[in-house]
Amino acid sequence: MSAARQQLDAIAARIAAMRNDAGSVTTLSDEARASAELLGALPPRYGEVLLSLLDRLESSALFSEESCSFSQKDLLDNLQVWVDKARGQLVS
After folding, report:
1. N or C: which end of the chain has fewer CB within 10 A?
2. What distances in angstroms separate CA 20 from CA 37, 47, 90, one per listed residue?
3. pTM score above 0.70
């Protein structure tokens, strides 16, 4: 398995953990930001979108769900869409 695919799988696992209240925003964000092989294997726009989603997710972690304009659940949903699309890019 390629390093890029391993990094993508790790990000997907972190998202799943967060959905089950077993992960942390910091761990997910740090791992995703450090996924150089994955980001290098994808078109540049994927990196821009990922960083934007991570920035919003980190902001949402600073506030309670009600006081933040970013829903953590919605951001995790968007990150999952990103993972799915990135997986499609790695296959092609």
Report:
1. C
2. 27, 26, 27
3. yes
